[in-house]
Phosphate acyltransferase
Amino acid sequence: MGGDRAPESVVQGAIDAAAHFHDDLEVVLVGDENAIGCYLPATEAQRLGIEIVHTSESIGMGESATTSYRKKRDSSIAVGIKLLGERRVDAFVSAGNTGAVVTASLLGLGRIKGVHRPAILTIVPTHHGQCLMLDVGANSDTKPAHLYQFAIMGRVYAQSVSGIPEPTIGLLNIGEESSKGSDLAQAAFKMLTECPGNLNFVGNVEGRDILKGTVDVVVCDGFTGNVILKFAESVVGMVVGAIRSELKRSLKFKLGALLLKPVFARVRSRLNYEEYGGAPLLGVDGVVVICHGSSSAKAIRNALRVAASGAREGIDAKIAEELSRELLREEVAG
Amino acid sequence: MGGDRAPESVVQGAIDAAAHFHDDLEVVLVGDENAIGCYLPATEAQRLGIEIVHTSESIGMGESATTSYRKKRDSSIAVGIKLLGERRVDAFVSAGNTGAVVTASLLGLGRIKGVHRPAILTIVPTHHGQCLMLDVGANSDTKPAHLYQFAIMGRVYAQSVSGIPEPTIGLLNIGEESSKGSDLAQAAFKMLTECPGNLNFVGNVEGRDILKGTVDVVVCDGFTGNVILKFAESVVGMVVGAIRSELKRSLKFKLGALLLKPVFARVRSRLNYEEYGGAPLLGVDGVVVICHGSSSAKAIRNALRVAASGAREGIDAKIAEELSRELLREEVAG
């Protein structure tokens, strides 16, 4: 029921996923059954194997996260997380209020043992591939030890879901030298450098390194990560808009644009964040994927695939394992 | 002597500025006279009215700011700031080590009375115009009161140099509601809302609002601002690179690209940060403009024009005036 285009695009994305990825996943739709019924007739749901769990409430995009979760126990977010907590589903996807999903996950599922703070990971398309960035908004204030754990969680995700055997990890900072940056970045740099495990930490990276693909995983605080993500999402539209406004100036340009139409479409799609599906919330005890509020059906479809991969790879169990190893190391060292 | 392409592009930019803007400014080049002589013969310098002040040292891009400024008193940065401090020049422009320029300005010129911290302001091209953003890197750690003053300094700059009579001001944050964001952003929001003067503060803005041009001035901490700026600088190249790699795929695309060549050039130039010249360092007692280390001659030329505007408008005096009014208000209130 969440998101700016719900339930239409959410239901349509679920239908597409059920149809395209029927070997990989089964969809359970959580929400108002009447609203869902407008876009998915019961016979069609049955044919696609889509189960519907009715809920009577929904949390608005502007509502306070904690209050709404506590008060609206029959909201689609609260019920979906409950189903996941009871392991009646293997993963939960939402395009609703991000704060409410994070709060519901923290309160309804709990953190993985040893995790200080969860983090939202996003995939950024780069020059030659993609780069994972976290945290992009689960936390508004971050401590050095959180950044250190984000590196561990990002590494686990890169290895098990993205299939990068030895991911390189960089710390987002405002200079490359170890002495550069905020107190937070300097302290995190120290922790990451002194890490006893094999984190493959390559040092500080700057804003320009994200799109260059200098490293596989970029670790940053949730404030900076969220600002960058929202800025990045607005960039392609800006460049394409600037090109489009120039095209009007001559017939020759219009012809050129006609010839290049497939190129623009491919570039837009390659740099389109929707293609990469939702953003996994790492560090909570269960597989949760958060989608943009304005997610299209395509974005929802891809997010469902991301969620299925996360569940199949047991990303939460792998993070738990890696962190318990980390805790053991600390005990031995301390 | 600073910057990755010094002294060639710096000297060339100075020559261009002296030739194009001779009614508006006079150039004094500070650096090694032999190195300068390679690109600007003495007769040519005389014809253009360019004065050369010889220095024997230069500060490298990777050197520690404070140490290098203190030790290298005959570096181009230290001497340039000294000339400005003695008011033998009206403004100082450098493409050298940013940290060293900030340190030299703080130690050599001092802060304007009442200013907690200086801030670097940059101009970001938007959909329909431009937006001013500060701080983009003078500070790695920022306090609420600093952000509050950045708003005042940004307003003064927008009014006197950019010619916006009543600039709107937004606080960069990770949500629009007043309750959203880091402790820093929330505290700054409160200060800006309770401000007794007429700041025209419109509230929080998000990463996507920067390019949308939602507000005239975006206030942010130097860490986030610097990361965004460097990310933004890498974006146009990324999009153009993605388009270019697609063009190779067919002859039709190559023809389309040929027809659209002027369009790409115009878009690149419109979104090119170099067009907007350097970034003024506000809050220090004198007009200082910082350029990107990789500045081209064109960027230097435009930075010299930005510096001349700042000096002509007496931006430092206007900031001093606005802050003394602010201090008076605080005294009356307190």
About this structure: Chain B touches chain A through 60 residues (CB under 8 Å).
